[in-house]
Design a protein that fits this description.
Layout (H helix, E strand, L loop, with lengths): L14 H15 L1 H7 L16 H25 L4 E2 L2 E2 L3 H28 L9 H32 L1 H14 L4 H15 L9 H27 L3 H9 L4 H39 L4 H11 L4 H31 L5
Antiparallel strand pairs: 1-2
Helix pairs in contact: 4-12, 5-6, 5-8, 5-10, 5-11, 7-8, 8-10, 10-11, 10-12, 11-12
Length: 340
């Protein structure tokens, strides 16, 4: 009997065969694990947006919905118990009916304006509730833009220079707590003296409200920008010195990307402050907008006035919430491509 020499290759296959065989054995031994580990392809959405799962969406939505539902239920129960000079406090249903009535008035006014234009003369009817909303949005956008254009560059300079920061800090701390009601008479007199044209490009009321919004809303952006710029990691500053970056390159490549979260936090605070200031300024100065609408309804004193005022209050709150969400989305979009 002849002995046949056995080789290792007769028992051990190639590396690829061993891996394939092991994978086959693993898949046969643990079929449940392999099924769970297979990821379902996700739908590609623009800007890298990922939709949450149904369970995650439910867990995120039910607490606020429950809170809002509970508030509406308590409001509906307690509203009939409150008596005012204009009657019973309106409940959610009355406010909704008043809102629908305001929409009907806006639609009727739009039809009347179209008929007036078609007849060849200008429509001179009073502004509707929808018109007042857009007027307030345009005013707060103008004031917020002016505040941002002034506060962000000054905050960057103050954060990069201790001397500039020490120079402007007393002024900021003194002017920041000043109420918009104190600024309004000064701004009104200055704008009225400056704008002397009978037909200016921008209405005096618009300029007054926008400037008051700017003066009261620039401080959060200025302070947060300066803090964010001053708190940049010292290692980044050292890298900039090693690379011999110029002032502009240092600003665009190191300072701005690092301080961006602080800047947007300040801008969100400024926008919220500006929206609150605008309503107060419109009420006091009788400038067109939601504030004037609330004041006019209060002065009207009809049985529907209270419900219409509450409609305006709800809309003011919803718009403020929407503006904050827009700023958050803008911050997320801008920060997505940060390099630092």
């Amino acid at each position: 009997m002849n002995a046949v020499a056995l080789r290792k290759d007769d028992f051990v296959g190639t590396e690829a065969e061993v891996m394939e065989g092991g994978a086959a054995l693993l898949s046969e031994a643990t079929p449940e694990t392999s099924v769970e580990t297979v990821a379902k392809p996700e739908k590609a959405l623009p800007f890298g947006i990922k939709l949450p799962s149904a369970r995650a969406a439910f867990e995120a939505l039910w607490p606020p919905l429950a809170g809002v539902g509970g508030f509406l239920a308590v409001w509906a129960v307690l509203a009939p118990l409150v008596q005012t000079s204009l009657g019973t406090l309106p409940g959610p249903g009355d406010v909704w009916s008043a809102f629908l009535g305001l929409l009907d008035e806006a639609a009727a006014s739009r039809v009347a304006a179209q008929e007036a234009v078609a007849a060849g003369y200008a429509y001179t009817g009073p502004p509707t509730f929808i018109d007042q909303i857009f007027t307030s949005l345009e005013t707060v956008a103008a004031g917020f833009t002016l505040a941002t254009l002034f506060a962000v560059p000054l905050g960057l300079i103050a954060g990069m220079s201790k001397r500039v920061n020490a120079a402007i800090n007393p002024l900021v701390q003194v002017m920041r707590p000043v109420s918009p009601l104190a600024w309004l008479p000064i701004v009104t007199m200055v704008v009225s003296a400056s704008v002397t044209s009978d037909d200016p490009t921008l209405a005096k009321s618009f300029i007054i409200s926008a400037v008051v919004v700017m003066l009261c809303s620039l401080w959060p952006t200025l302070i947060n920008t300066a803090i964010g710029t001053a708190s940049i990691d010292k290692d980044l500053i050292a890298v900039g010195r090693v690379l011999r970056l110029g002032w502009f390159a240092k600003l665009t490549r190191l300072v701005l990307p690092s301080s961006l979260p602080y800047i947007f936090t300040g801008m969100r605070l400024s926008l919220g402050t500006g929206w609150m200031v605008l309503i107060a300024a419109e009420m006091l100065a009788q400038n067109p907008g939601l504030g004037k609408f609330v004041w006019d309804e209060f002065q009207n004193g009809s049985e529907k006035s209270l419900a219409r005022i509450m409609v305006a209050v709800v809309v003011i709150g919803l718009i403020g919430f929407a503006l904050d969400r827009v700023m958050m989305a803008l911050q997320s979009f801008v920060s997505r491509n940060r390099t630092v």
